[in-house]
Amino acid sequence: MELEMDVREELNIEKCIDCPFVEAEQYLQTLLLDGIKKIFIANGFSNKFVVSKIDDKDIENTEQFAIEILPDLIDESEYPEYYEQLKNKLMVKVTAAPKTDSKLQIKNRSLRNIDSNEIEDVTDGTLISKKQKLNILDVDLSSERSIVLKIIKEWLNINAKDIYNNQELDVTISIINDENDIVAKVFCFECAVRVNIFKVYSPGHSKKWSFSNYYKHVKIHLKKPVPNKIKNLQTLDKYINVTSPQTPETSQSIETPPELIKEDLNCQSDFQNSKNKKYGRNEREKRRRERSLVTGEYKQTFIINYIAVLDEVSKLMENNENLRKMLARNIEETQEDNVLCFQLAVLDSNSLLKCLYECAEKNQKSSKYKHHNRFEEELKKFSTYIFIVGGRLLYETLHANMNRVLPSITTIFRYLDNTQSKVIDGNFRFNELRVYLIKKNLPLKVWISEDATRITGKIEYDVKSNKVVGFVLPLKNGCPLPNAFIASNAKTNAQYFNSECRANYAYVIMARPLNETAAPFCLSIYGTNNRFSNEDVINRWEFMKTVATEQGIEILGFSSDGDTRLLKAMLLQSICTKLPIIPNQEQNKEIYIQDTVHIMTKLRTRFLKSNIIIPMGDYFATVDHLMELTRTFSKDKHLLTVSD
User: Fold this and answer.
1) Are the C-beta atoms of 122 and 47 separated by less than 8 Å?
2) Looking at the record, which segments are called Disordered (predicted)?
3) Span 120-170, pLDDT tens digits
4) Pick the residue with more confidence: 275 or 453?
5) Hey, is 118 helix, strand or coil?
6) What percent of the chain has pLDDT over 90?
7) Does residue 428 share a domain with residue 572?
8) Which end of the chain is more exposed for a tag (fewer CB within 10 A), N or C?
9) Phi, psi (degrees; rounded to nearest 5) at 72
10) Phi-psi region of 454 (alpha: psi -120 to 50; beta: other; left: phi over 0)
């Protein structure tokens, strides 16, 4: 199909080259070069009707088109087809001749042998009556211009969207009085060449415009190869003339005085300030702050206001030796009093500041090396608290600025290892939980919550317990085995790395006392790959209830997130009705429920879906009720926002 279209298009081009110039060659008894014909056709003269109206201005425009515009529209390989024997394309020139007389004779010759009441439209070869052609003078030119613009833009957006980017088209409609013709002059958006479009008539049809000239001209631009497939996009630079700061542009003429030209060269562009550091954002903010200090309610005095006073004092001290000695003695006494007052203020302050001061003074005097510092027990506890609450980065910053006042992070870790009980991977700490509850004067009743969190696994060797930590602990009756990876020898350690997998989840079990102000207690933590069943969960809960009972601790209930295995275990453990076939079945006293935080999160998600209706007792709740609540009551009543 594409091959047939290419062949058909080549035949049409050959026909367009020969047809418009046949009668002109016959009358002038000469043959025009094919290159000249192609140049005229490329410039829009592609039919006999347009050729018959060529004037001197059209020939000059064609010469300019062949010299300046056409070389950019075609490839260098196509130059011989248009310029033929010419070695220089700039030498294109149509020889002056009696063009006007010949043009009129050619037009009259093309219209001969036609009835006097009929005129042949040479573009389509149809016959049009004189009365029909005289009606052209009655048309509305503005409406015709709108029609032409609409049709051309629609065609360009479909067939020439690679080069047309909704540019404004220059179209003028005029009437040729001597010929009673209406013509539209369209300037090409690529090369600014004028292309004439005429309105033609056909028997039995309404008047219409013939756009073939313009379409053929635009197709020549479409054949031009685009370098690097970069489209000619419309940019803001086309509408803004920016003068470069390095090479300012100046416009001068013969009438411009030399002094004005010199003045223009020294002028700076409006866009140069953007590259100047003085007009940067930081500098502008700095100047704004300075102005606010001077023009604000509380005007700040400048240091330069005291320069005059200092100059007077300097002159008096130079001329009076007694005054100079008295001022020097007063300055020394003032400095000594300030140091003494500072020491007394520190010693009279609270114990923490006094401890910091004494520790810094002692380490400064007794130790010559920065790593031989000694710290009191209270200061170690205070530093440990800062490290736990503030984090590593905060403590490192404080320690770098208070080197001999605060202990290092290594000292804090060593202090924790010596004073606190170590949490063993996979061990249940019910004994420590009992001590914690008794020490805080709390009842021996707790609530158990558990969940798994994603971690970045790491294999380490624990020196104190002689274990390899970081592997997935095997489960027995749902409980992890703490002593599964003993570092007995190198062969065993290598076997661990070859056969076992690294833990990528940390499973945490927390015990929450009944007091709201009491902190929760970490009952157990171990590494896992999150592969277990609901039977493992039930067996672990039974083991925990047994060990807690031995320590005198009562477990009131279990809760977790929405894990399906945990939810299934909760469902099985929550069955409170006795089966008739098992008369001595023991009922579970504990409460099994999902965490309220997860429950409210799911409830919120359901509320926000407009197509879900949630039954609550005898009523139904939807998101419309929440919207009505926010519209009726203020935020201090419901604590909700539209974004929630």
Assistant:
1) yes
2) 271-292
3) 444 444 444 444 444 544 567 778 888 888 888 888 888 887 777 677 788
4) 453
5) strand
6) 14
7) yes
8) N
9) -80, -15
10) beta
Same-domain status, 488 and 517:
yes
Give me the number of domains the chain comprises. 5
Give the structural domain span for 392.
351-420
Say whether both 413 and 428 belong to one domain: no
- Cβ(104)–Cβ(96) under 8 Å? no
Residue-wise pLDDT tens digits, 276-291: 777 778 888 888 877 7
**192 in any annotated domain:** yes
**pLDDT tens sequence across 521-543:** 999 999 999 899 999 999 999 99
CB 573 within 8 A of CB 588: yes
- What DSSP letter does each residue of 477-506 carry, written as one string? TTEE-TTS-B---HHHHHHHHHH--B--EE
Of residues 546 and 464, more confidently modeled: 546
pLDDT of residue 420: 78
Q: Which pTM was predicted? A: 0.42
The SS3 assignment for 175 reads strand
Residue 340 pLDDT: 59
Give the Cα separation of 113 and 98 in Å (integer).
25
Q: In this structure, are 519 and 608 located in the same domain? A: no
For residue 123, give Cα distances in angstroms to 20, 207, 213, 357: 9, 14, 10, 106
Asked whether 395 and 495 are in contact (CB, 8 A), the reply is: no
Q: Are residues 522 and 450 in the same domain?
A: yes
Read off φ and ψ for residue 508, nearest 5 degrees.
-115, 135
Q: What is the pLDDT of residue 557?
A: 92
Residue 245 structure tokens: 């700061």
Among residues 28, 46, 81, which one ends one of the domains?
A: 81
182-239 pLDDT per residue, tens: 788 888 877 878 888 887 766 666 677 888 878 888 888 877 665 544 445 555 555 5
Q: Whose structure tokens read 């300046």?
A: 68
- For residue 446, which of 341, 385, 523 has the smallest C-alpha distance? 523
Contact assessment for residue 442 and residue 513, using Cβ atoms and an 8 Å cutoff: yes
DSSP E strand stretches across 503-626: 505-513, 521-528, 554-560, 591-594, 614-616, 619-621
Among 446, 435, 450, smallest CA distance to 512 is for 446
Q: Is the pLDDT reported for residue 499 higher than 80?
A: yes
Please say if the pLDDT value at position 605 is more than 90: no
Q: Cα–Cα distances in Å, from 169 out to 150, 156, 208, 310?
A: 10, 11, 20, 76
In the prediction, which pLDDT does 545 show?
Answer: 93
Kindly state whether residues 536 and 622 are assigned to the same domain: no
For residue 488, the domain's CATH number is 3.30.420
> Cα separation of 94 and 102, whole Å?
15
Query: What is the rounded CA–CA span in Å between residue 550 and residue 254?
Result: 112
How far is 281 from 278, CA to CA, in rounded Å?
A: 9
Lowest mean pLDDT among 84-88, 476-480, 508-512: 84-88
Tens-digit pLDDT profile for residues 330-355: 877 777 666 656 555 555 556 777 78
State both tokens at 57.
């201005």
* Same domain membership, residue 468 and residue 410: no
Domain identity same for 495 and 573: yes
d(CA 448, CA 512): 6
**Is residue 516 in some structural domain?**
yes
- C-alpha to C-alpha distance for 329 and 351, rounded to whole angstroms: 36
The identity of residue 83, as a single letter, is: Y
| Matching residue, tokens 């007694």 | 322
* CB neighbour list of residue 496: distance below 8 Å, 6 or more residues apart: 468, 471, 485
Residue 341 is assigned to a structural domain of this protein: no
> Rg (Cα) of the chain, in Å, rounded?
49
CA-based nearest residue to 369, from 401, 403, 411, 397: 403
